Amino acid sequence: MGEAAKTVIFEIERQNSTDESSYWEKFELPYRANMNVISALMEIRRNPVNMDGKKTTPVNWDMNCLEEVCGACSMVINGKARQSCTALVDQLEQPIRLQPMRTFPVVRDLIVDRSRMFDSLKKVKAWVPIDGTHDLGEGPRMPERKRQWAYELSKCMTCGVCLEACPNVNDKSDFIGAAPLSQVRLMNAHPTGAMNRDERLNAIMGEGGLADCGNSQNCVESCPKGIPLTTSIAALNRDVSIQMFRNFFGSDHMVD
Amino acid sequence: MNNNREFLLRRLHSLLGVIPIGLFLTQHLIVNHFATQGVEAFNQAAHFMANLPFVIFLEIFVIYLPLMYHAFYGLYIAFTAKNNPGHYSYMRNMLFVAQRYTGVFLVVFIAWHVFETRFQVAIGAGEADFNMMENILSNPLMFAFYVVGVLSATFHFANGLWSFFVTWGITVSEKAQRYSTYFTLLVFIVLSIIGIRALFAFV
Protein backbone atom coordinates (compact mmCIF):
# COMPACT_ATOMS: atom_id res chain seq x y z
CA MET A 1 0.00 0.00 0.00
CA GLY A 2 1.13 3.53 -0.69
CA GLU A 3 1.14 6.24 1.90
CA ALA A 4 -2.24 7.28 3.34
CA ALA A 5 -4.14 9.69 1.15
CA LYS A 6 -4.24 13.25 2.45
CA THR A 7 -7.48 14.07 4.24
CA VAL A 8 -9.28 17.05 5.73
CA ILE A 9 -10.99 16.91 9.11
CA PHE A 10 -14.12 18.90 9.84
CA GLU A 11 -15.84 19.40 13.19
CA ILE A 12 -19.36 20.63 12.70
CA GLU A 13 -21.76 21.88 15.33
CA ARG A 14 -25.08 20.44 14.33
CA GLN A 15 -28.62 20.96 15.47
CA ASN A 16 -31.76 19.26 14.20
CA SER A 17 -34.16 22.13 14.75
CA THR A 18 -34.40 25.53 16.43
CA ASP A 19 -35.44 24.21 19.84
CA GLU A 20 -33.20 21.17 20.05
CA SER A 21 -29.77 21.23 21.62
CA SER A 22 -26.68 21.10 19.46
CA TYR A 23 -24.04 18.39 19.13
CA TRP A 24 -20.67 18.09 17.45
CA GLU A 25 -19.94 15.68 14.65
CA LYS A 26 -16.59 15.00 13.00
CA PHE A 27 -15.98 14.17 9.39
CA GLU A 28 -12.85 13.14 7.55
CA LEU A 29 -12.82 13.57 3.82
CA PRO A 30 -10.31 13.13 1.05
CA TYR A 31 -8.37 16.25 0.23
CA ARG A 32 -8.73 17.79 -3.19
CA ALA A 33 -6.73 20.70 -4.50
CA ASN A 34 -8.33 24.17 -4.08
CA MET A 35 -11.31 22.88 -2.12
CA ASN A 36 -13.37 25.36 -0.13
CA VAL A 37 -15.71 24.79 2.80
CA ILE A 38 -18.72 24.53 0.47
CA SER A 39 -17.16 21.83 -1.69
CA ALA A 40 -16.29 19.95 1.50
CA LEU A 41 -19.89 20.22 2.68
CA MET A 42 -21.01 18.95 -0.73
CA GLU A 43 -18.69 15.97 -0.30
CA ILE A 44 -20.25 15.27 3.12
CA ARG A 45 -23.70 15.50 1.56
CA ARG A 46 -22.67 13.02 -1.13
CA ASN A 47 -21.36 10.57 1.44
CA PRO A 48 -22.75 11.38 4.90
CA VAL A 49 -20.54 9.14 7.00
CA ASN A 50 -18.93 10.60 10.11
CA MET A 51 -15.45 9.91 11.46
CA ASP A 52 -16.66 6.96 13.52
CA GLY A 53 -17.69 5.34 10.24
CA LYS A 54 -21.38 5.73 11.06
CA LYS A 55 -23.89 6.83 8.47
CA THR A 56 -25.47 10.12 9.47
CA THR A 57 -27.78 12.76 8.06
CA PRO A 58 -26.21 15.14 5.55
CA VAL A 59 -25.19 18.49 7.02
CA ASN A 60 -27.53 21.34 6.07
CA TRP A 61 -26.23 24.70 4.99
CA ASP A 62 -27.37 27.64 2.95
CA MET A 63 -25.73 28.90 -0.22
CA ASN A 64 -26.53 30.73 -3.38
CA CYS A 65 -24.10 32.81 -5.41
CA LEU A 66 -20.82 31.07 -4.49
CA GLU A 67 -18.87 34.28 -5.16
CA GLU A 68 -19.29 36.24 -1.92
CA VAL A 69 -22.00 38.61 -3.06
CA CYS A 70 -25.18 37.07 -1.63
CA GLY A 71 -24.22 36.40 1.98
CA ALA A 72 -26.34 33.24 2.28
CA CYS A 73 -23.50 30.85 3.13
CA SER A 74 -22.24 32.85 6.14
CA MET A 75 -21.22 30.74 9.12
CA VAL A 76 -18.67 30.69 11.91
CA ILE A 77 -15.48 29.07 10.63
CA ASN A 78 -12.74 28.43 13.19
CA GLY A 79 -14.37 30.95 15.50
CA LYS A 80 -14.85 33.77 13.02
CA ALA A 81 -17.96 34.61 11.06
CA ARG A 82 -17.43 34.69 7.29
CA GLN A 83 -18.71 33.28 4.02
CA SER A 84 -18.00 29.59 3.49
CA CYS A 85 -17.74 29.99 -0.31
CA THR A 86 -14.54 32.02 0.01
CA ALA A 87 -13.15 30.00 2.93
CA LEU A 88 -10.41 27.99 1.25
CA VAL A 89 -9.41 24.79 3.01
CA ASP A 90 -5.73 25.40 2.23
CA GLN A 91 -5.83 28.60 4.26
CA LEU A 92 -7.60 27.15 7.29
CA GLU A 93 -6.17 25.52 10.37
CA GLN A 94 -7.34 21.95 10.88
CA PRO A 95 -9.57 20.54 12.19
CA ILE A 96 -11.88 23.06 10.55
CA ARG A 97 -14.65 23.93 12.96
CA LEU A 98 -17.97 25.01 11.48
CA GLN A 99 -20.70 26.55 13.59
CA PRO A 100 -23.92 28.39 12.80
CA MET A 101 -24.06 32.14 13.51
CA ARG A 102 -25.83 31.86 16.85
CA THR A 103 -26.74 35.52 16.95
CA PHE A 104 -29.61 34.36 14.76
CA PRO A 105 -32.10 31.54 15.40
CA VAL A 106 -30.69 28.29 14.02
CA VAL A 107 -33.03 26.60 11.57
CA ARG A 108 -31.01 23.45 11.14
CA ASP A 109 -27.28 22.69 11.35
CA LEU A 110 -25.53 25.66 9.73
CA ILE A 111 -28.68 27.36 8.42
CA VAL A 112 -29.80 30.41 10.37
CA ASP A 113 -32.82 32.66 10.03
CA ARG A 114 -31.62 36.21 9.29
CA SER A 115 -35.15 37.69 9.19
CA ARG A 116 -34.34 40.12 11.98
CA MET A 117 -31.95 41.96 9.67
CA PHE A 118 -34.66 42.45 7.07
CA ASP A 119 -37.07 43.56 9.80
CA SER A 120 -34.44 46.09 10.90
CA LEU A 121 -34.13 47.44 7.36
CA LYS A 122 -37.90 48.00 7.41
CA LYS A 123 -37.70 49.62 10.83
CA VAL A 124 -35.10 52.16 9.71
CA LYS A 125 -36.89 52.77 6.36
CA ALA A 126 -33.88 51.73 4.32
CA TRP A 127 -35.41 52.56 0.98
CA VAL A 128 -36.02 55.58 -1.22
CA PRO A 129 -39.76 56.26 -1.46
CA ILE A 130 -40.66 57.16 -5.04
CA ASP A 131 -44.18 55.80 -5.37
CA GLY A 132 -46.93 58.34 -5.88
CA THR A 133 -50.22 58.82 -7.64
CA HIS A 134 -48.57 60.55 -10.55
CA ASP A 135 -45.22 60.63 -12.27
CA LEU A 136 -42.88 62.67 -10.10
CA GLY A 137 -40.35 63.08 -12.87
CA GLU A 138 -36.63 62.83 -12.50
CA GLY A 139 -35.00 63.20 -9.13
CA PRO A 140 -32.07 65.48 -8.37
CA ARG A 141 -28.74 64.44 -9.87
CA MET A 142 -26.08 62.82 -7.75
CA PRO A 143 -22.47 63.93 -8.21
CA GLU A 144 -20.47 61.11 -9.79
CA ARG A 145 -17.82 61.12 -7.06
CA LYS A 146 -20.50 60.81 -4.43
CA ARG A 147 -22.08 57.93 -6.35
CA GLN A 148 -18.75 56.11 -6.41
CA TRP A 149 -18.42 56.54 -2.66
CA ALA A 150 -22.02 55.48 -2.02
CA TYR A 151 -21.50 52.39 -4.15
CA GLU A 152 -19.15 51.04 -1.47
CA LEU A 153 -21.93 51.28 1.12
CA SER A 154 -24.35 49.61 -1.27
CA LYS A 155 -22.19 46.48 -1.37
CA CYS A 156 -23.81 45.29 1.87
CA MET A 157 -25.36 41.85 1.28
CA THR A 158 -27.09 41.57 4.69
CA CYS A 159 -24.95 38.52 5.42
CA GLY A 160 -25.04 39.05 9.17
CA VAL A 161 -21.31 38.73 9.83
CA CYS A 162 -21.14 42.18 11.46
CA LEU A 163 -23.99 41.25 13.80
CA GLU A 164 -22.38 37.92 14.70
CA ALA A 165 -19.05 39.66 15.49
CA CYS A 166 -20.67 42.44 17.55
CA PRO A 167 -20.58 41.94 21.33
CA ASN A 168 -23.63 44.18 21.72
CA VAL A 169 -25.88 42.21 19.39
CA ASN A 170 -27.11 39.35 21.53
CA ASP A 171 -30.19 37.91 23.17
CA LYS A 172 -29.97 40.42 26.03
CA SER A 173 -30.15 43.46 23.75
CA ASP A 174 -32.31 44.75 20.89
CA PHE A 175 -29.39 46.32 19.04
CA ILE A 176 -30.00 46.12 15.29
CA GLY A 177 -26.27 46.07 14.50
CA ALA A 178 -24.06 47.82 11.99
CA ALA A 179 -25.52 46.66 8.65
CA PRO A 180 -28.93 48.38 8.82
CA LEU A 181 -27.33 51.50 10.34
CA SER A 182 -24.95 51.82 7.43
CA GLN A 183 -27.91 51.47 5.07
CA VAL A 184 -29.44 54.52 6.72
CA ARG A 185 -26.32 56.46 5.81
CA LEU A 186 -26.54 55.15 2.24
CA MET A 187 -30.22 56.08 1.84
CA ASN A 188 -29.68 59.48 3.45
CA ALA A 189 -26.83 60.15 1.02
CA HIS A 190 -29.11 59.57 -1.95
CA PRO A 191 -30.46 62.91 -3.23
CA THR A 192 -34.04 61.63 -3.34
CA GLY A 193 -33.61 59.52 -0.21
CA ALA A 194 -32.38 62.59 1.65
CA MET A 195 -35.90 64.00 1.41
CA ASN A 196 -36.84 61.59 4.22
CA ARG A 197 -33.60 61.66 6.17
CA ASP A 198 -35.20 62.87 9.42
CA GLU A 199 -37.54 59.85 9.43
CA ARG A 200 -34.61 57.45 9.24
CA LEU A 201 -32.58 59.38 11.81
CA ASN A 202 -35.50 59.36 14.21
CA ALA A 203 -35.95 55.64 13.61
CA ILE A 204 -32.36 54.87 14.59
CA MET A 205 -32.76 57.01 17.70
CA GLY A 206 -35.36 54.48 18.83
CA GLU A 207 -35.10 51.26 20.81
CA GLY A 208 -32.18 49.06 19.75
CA GLY A 209 -30.82 51.80 17.52
CA LEU A 210 -27.60 53.66 17.09
CA ALA A 211 -27.04 54.39 20.79
CA ASP A 212 -26.51 50.69 21.53
CA CYS A 213 -23.24 50.69 19.63
CA GLY A 214 -20.34 50.14 22.05
CA ASN A 215 -17.54 50.93 19.58
CA SER A 216 -15.86 47.54 19.73
CA GLN A 217 -15.40 48.00 15.96
CA ASN A 218 -15.53 44.25 15.31
CA CYS A 219 -18.02 44.97 12.52
CA VAL A 220 -15.62 46.91 10.36
CA GLU A 221 -12.86 44.37 10.98
CA SER A 222 -15.16 41.50 10.00
CA CYS A 223 -17.12 42.94 7.07
CA PRO A 224 -16.31 40.78 4.02
CA LYS A 225 -17.13 43.68 1.70
CA GLY A 226 -14.85 46.15 3.48
CA ILE A 227 -17.68 48.59 4.14
CA PRO A 228 -16.55 51.45 6.43
CA LEU A 229 -19.20 50.54 9.01
CA THR A 230 -17.67 52.41 11.95
CA THR A 231 -17.28 55.55 9.86
CA SER A 232 -20.96 55.19 8.97
CA ILE A 233 -21.87 54.81 12.63
CA ALA A 234 -19.81 57.86 13.65
CA ALA A 235 -21.25 59.92 10.78
CA LEU A 236 -24.76 58.93 11.86
CA ASN A 237 -23.86 59.85 15.43
CA ARG A 238 -23.10 63.33 14.17
CA ASP A 239 -26.34 63.52 12.14
CA VAL A 240 -28.35 62.25 15.06
CA SER A 241 -26.72 64.74 17.48
CA ILE A 242 -27.98 67.54 15.25
CA GLN A 243 -31.37 65.88 14.72
CA MET A 244 -31.73 65.53 18.50
CA PHE A 245 -31.32 69.28 19.02
CA ARG A 246 -33.55 69.96 16.06
CA ASN A 247 -36.29 67.78 17.51
CA PHE A 248 -36.06 69.41 20.90
CA PHE A 249 -35.50 73.06 20.21
CA GLY A 250 -37.92 72.84 17.35
CA SER A 251 -37.57 73.74 13.77
CA ASP A 252 -40.66 74.26 11.69
CA HIS A 253 -39.21 72.03 9.01
CA MET A 254 -37.34 68.77 9.31
CA VAL A 255 -35.90 68.52 5.80
CA ASP A 256 -33.58 71.05 4.27
CA MET B 1 -44.18 57.69 17.95
CA ASN B 2 -40.61 56.75 18.39
CA ASN B 3 -39.48 55.78 21.83
CA ASN B 4 -36.06 57.36 22.16
CA ARG B 5 -35.73 57.05 25.93
CA GLU B 6 -32.89 54.54 25.62
CA PHE B 7 -31.11 56.84 23.17
CA LEU B 8 -31.28 59.78 25.60
CA LEU B 9 -30.18 57.62 28.55
CA ARG B 10 -27.15 56.41 26.58
CA ARG B 11 -26.22 59.89 25.47
CA LEU B 12 -26.57 61.15 29.05
CA HIS B 13 -24.34 58.30 30.21
CA SER B 14 -21.70 59.30 27.68
CA LEU B 15 -21.92 62.99 28.52
CA LEU B 16 -21.79 62.57 32.29
CA GLY B 17 -18.74 60.32 32.00
CA VAL B 18 -16.75 63.27 30.67
CA ILE B 19 -18.64 66.23 32.13
CA PRO B 20 -18.52 66.31 35.09
CA ILE B 21 -17.03 62.95 36.13
CA GLY B 22 -13.94 63.03 33.91
CA LEU B 23 -13.24 66.64 34.83
CA PHE B 24 -13.70 65.84 38.50
CA LEU B 25 -11.33 62.87 38.23
CA THR B 26 -8.68 65.09 36.66
CA GLN B 27 -9.11 67.74 39.32
CA HIS B 28 -9.07 65.12 42.09
CA LEU B 29 -5.82 63.58 40.86
CA ILE B 30 -4.20 66.99 40.48
CA VAL B 31 -5.15 68.00 44.02
CA ASN B 32 -3.82 64.66 45.29
CA HIS B 33 -0.54 65.49 43.60
CA PHE B 34 0.06 68.13 46.30
CA ALA B 35 1.09 65.15 48.45
CA THR B 36 4.37 65.05 46.53
CA GLN B 37 5.15 68.51 47.97
CA GLY B 38 4.82 67.40 51.56
CA VAL B 39 2.26 67.02 54.32
CA GLU B 40 1.57 70.71 54.69
CA ALA B 41 0.88 71.33 51.00
CA PHE B 42 -1.52 68.39 50.77
CA ASN B 43 -3.41 69.30 53.92
CA GLN B 44 -3.79 72.87 52.76
CA ALA B 45 -5.18 71.76 49.38
CA ALA B 46 -7.50 69.19 50.98
CA HIS B 47 -8.69 71.81 53.44
CA PHE B 48 -9.41 74.24 50.63
CA MET B 49 -11.45 71.64 48.70
CA ALA B 50 -13.35 70.51 51.79
CA ASN B 51 -14.31 74.05 52.66
CA LEU B 52 -15.51 75.33 49.31
CA PRO B 53 -18.76 77.25 49.64
CA PHE B 54 -21.86 75.10 49.09
CA VAL B 55 -19.57 72.07 49.11
CA ILE B 56 -22.37 69.60 49.82
CA PHE B 57 -24.33 70.80 46.78
CA LEU B 58 -21.23 70.71 44.65
CA GLU B 59 -20.67 67.16 45.79
CA ILE B 60 -24.25 66.08 45.17
CA PHE B 61 -24.68 67.61 41.72
CA VAL B 62 -21.15 67.38 40.38
CA ILE B 63 -20.12 64.07 41.92
CA TYR B 64 -22.68 61.83 43.62
CA LEU B 65 -25.67 62.01 41.27
CA PRO B 66 -23.76 61.90 37.96
CA LEU B 67 -21.42 59.23 39.30
CA MET B 68 -24.25 57.04 40.57
CA TYR B 69 -26.15 57.34 37.31
CA HIS B 70 -23.01 56.57 35.31
CA ALA B 71 -22.19 53.63 37.60
CA PHE B 72 -25.59 51.96 37.64
CA TYR B 73 -26.46 52.52 34.00
CA GLY B 74 -22.91 51.48 33.18
CA LEU B 75 -23.39 48.18 35.01
CA TYR B 76 -26.48 47.58 32.89
CA ILE B 77 -24.48 48.31 29.73
CA ALA B 78 -21.58 46.13 30.85
CA PHE B 79 -23.80 43.16 31.58
CA THR B 80 -25.78 43.36 28.35
CA ALA B 81 -22.60 42.86 26.34
CA LYS B 82 -21.44 39.42 25.29
CA ASN B 83 -17.67 39.89 25.24
CA ASN B 84 -15.85 38.00 22.51
CA PRO B 85 -12.17 38.99 22.74
CA GLY B 86 -11.04 35.43 22.07
CA HIS B 87 -11.90 35.10 18.40
CA TYR B 88 -12.16 38.79 17.62
CA SER B 89 -8.96 40.00 19.28
CA TYR B 90 -8.77 43.39 17.57
CA MET B 91 -7.42 46.34 19.54
CA ARG B 92 -10.73 48.20 19.79
CA ASN B 93 -12.52 45.06 20.91
CA MET B 94 -9.91 44.46 23.63
CA LEU B 95 -10.39 48.03 24.81
CA PHE B 96 -14.17 47.51 24.67
CA VAL B 97 -13.79 44.55 27.04
CA ALA B 98 -11.31 46.41 29.27
CA GLN B 99 -13.71 49.36 29.47
CA ARG B 100 -16.37 47.05 30.88
CA TYR B 101 -14.07 45.24 33.33
CA THR B 102 -12.55 48.47 34.66
CA GLY B 103 -16.03 49.97 34.91
CA VAL B 104 -17.33 47.14 37.08
CA PHE B 105 -14.18 47.21 39.21
CA LEU B 106 -14.46 50.98 39.63
CA VAL B 107 -17.98 50.67 41.05
CA VAL B 108 -16.49 48.53 43.83
CA PHE B 109 -13.35 50.63 44.23
CA ILE B 110 -15.12 54.00 44.32
CA ALA B 111 -17.80 52.74 46.70
CA TRP B 112 -15.04 51.58 49.05
CA HIS B 113 -12.98 54.73 48.55
CA VAL B 114 -15.95 57.02 49.32
CA PHE B 115 -16.85 54.94 52.38
CA GLU B 116 -13.29 54.90 53.67
CA THR B 117 -12.62 58.61 53.22
CA ARG B 118 -15.65 60.87 52.64
CA PHE B 119 -18.15 58.84 54.67
CA GLN B 120 -15.79 58.54 57.64
CA VAL B 121 -15.34 62.30 57.61
CA ALA B 122 -19.11 62.82 57.40
CA ILE B 123 -19.76 60.75 60.53
CA GLY B 124 -16.91 62.44 62.32
CA ALA B 125 -14.70 59.37 62.45
CA GLY B 126 -11.75 61.11 60.85
CA GLU B 127 -10.49 64.03 58.85
CA ALA B 128 -9.55 63.96 55.19
CA ASP B 129 -5.88 64.76 55.54
CA PHE B 130 -2.45 63.37 54.80
CA ASN B 131 -2.58 61.19 57.89
CA MET B 132 -5.72 59.41 56.82
CA MET B 133 -4.28 58.44 53.44
CA GLU B 134 -0.94 57.53 55.01
CA ASN B 135 -2.73 55.11 57.35
CA ILE B 136 -4.77 53.57 54.56
CA LEU B 137 -1.86 53.18 52.16
CA SER B 138 0.53 51.79 54.78
CA ASN B 139 -1.24 48.47 54.23
CA PRO B 140 0.45 46.97 51.11
CA LEU B 141 -2.78 45.27 50.03
CA MET B 142 -4.64 48.56 50.23
CA PHE B 143 -1.83 50.27 48.36
CA ALA B 144 -2.12 47.72 45.56
CA PHE B 145 -5.92 48.16 45.57
CA TYR B 146 -5.50 51.92 45.18
CA VAL B 147 -2.90 51.58 42.42
CA VAL B 148 -5.26 49.32 40.45
CA GLY B 149 -8.12 51.68 41.26
CA VAL B 150 -6.31 54.78 39.98
CA LEU B 151 -5.12 53.02 36.82
CA SER B 152 -8.61 51.66 36.16
CA ALA B 153 -10.05 55.12 36.57
CA THR B 154 -7.55 56.82 34.27
CA PHE B 155 -7.94 54.08 31.65
CA HIS B 156 -11.73 54.11 31.87
CA PHE B 157 -11.77 57.88 31.50
CA ALA B 158 -9.26 58.03 28.63
CA ASN B 159 -10.91 55.23 26.66
CA GLY B 160 -14.34 56.63 27.51
CA LEU B 161 -13.23 59.97 26.16
CA TRP B 162 -12.35 58.26 22.90
CA SER B 163 -15.86 56.77 22.63
CA PHE B 164 -17.36 60.08 23.72
CA PHE B 165 -15.81 61.69 20.63
CA VAL B 166 -17.34 58.97 18.44
CA THR B 167 -20.70 58.92 20.20
CA TRP B 168 -21.23 62.63 19.74
CA GLY B 169 -20.05 62.52 16.14
CA ILE B 170 -16.89 64.55 16.69
CA THR B 171 -14.39 62.00 15.33
CA VAL B 172 -15.99 60.51 12.23
CA SER B 173 -13.23 59.54 9.82
CA GLU B 174 -10.88 56.65 10.43
CA LYS B 175 -8.02 59.11 10.58
CA ALA B 176 -9.72 61.29 13.19
CA GLN B 177 -10.43 58.22 15.27
CA ARG B 178 -6.81 57.08 15.00
CA TYR B 179 -5.46 60.44 16.14
CA SER B 180 -8.06 60.44 18.88
CA THR B 181 -6.59 57.11 20.02
CA TYR B 182 -3.13 58.71 20.29
CA PHE B 183 -4.56 61.70 22.15
CA THR B 184 -6.52 59.62 24.66
CA LEU B 185 -3.48 57.38 25.16
CA LEU B 186 -1.59 60.50 26.15
CA VAL B 187 -4.41 61.46 28.54
CA PHE B 188 -4.17 58.00 30.09
CA ILE B 189 -0.40 58.20 30.53
CA VAL B 190 -0.33 61.72 31.94
CA LEU B 191 -3.20 61.17 34.39
CA SER B 192 -1.73 57.83 35.47
CA ILE B 193 1.64 59.41 36.25
CA ILE B 194 -0.03 62.16 38.26
CA GLY B 195 -2.21 59.67 40.13
CA ILE B 196 0.49 57.11 40.88
CA ARG B 197 3.03 59.75 41.94
CA ALA B 198 0.53 61.02 44.50
CA LEU B 199 -0.04 57.50 45.86
CA PHE B 200 3.69 56.93 46.28
CA ALA B 201 4.00 60.22 48.14
CA PHE B 202 1.98 58.75 51.01
CA VAL B 203 4.31 55.84 51.67
TrEMBL record, chain A:
Biological process (GO) annotations held by this record are: respiratory electron transport chain; tricarboxylic acid cycle
Q: Which Gene3D superfamilies match?
A: 3.10.20.30, Alpha-helical ferredoxin (1.10.1060.10)
> What is this enzyme's class at the first EC digit?
oxidoreductase
**GO MF annotation: an example:** 3 iron, 4 sulfur cluster binding
Q: Where is the 4Fe-4S ferredoxin-type domain?
A: 147-175
Requisite cofactors: [2Fe-2S] cluster; [3Fe-4S] cluster; [4Fe-4S] cluster
Alphabetized, the UniProt keywords read: 2Fe-2S, 3Fe-4S, 4Fe-4S, Iron, Iron-sulfur, Metal-binding, Oxidoreductase, Tricarboxylic acid cycle
Q: Which family does it belong to?
A: Belongs to the succinate dehydrogenase/fumarate reductase iron-sulfur protein family.
Q: Which NCBIfam families match?
A: dhsB (TIGR00384), PRK08640.1 (NF006391)
Q: What is this protein called?
A: succinate dehydrogenase
Q: Which organism does this sequence originate in?
A: Planococcus citreus
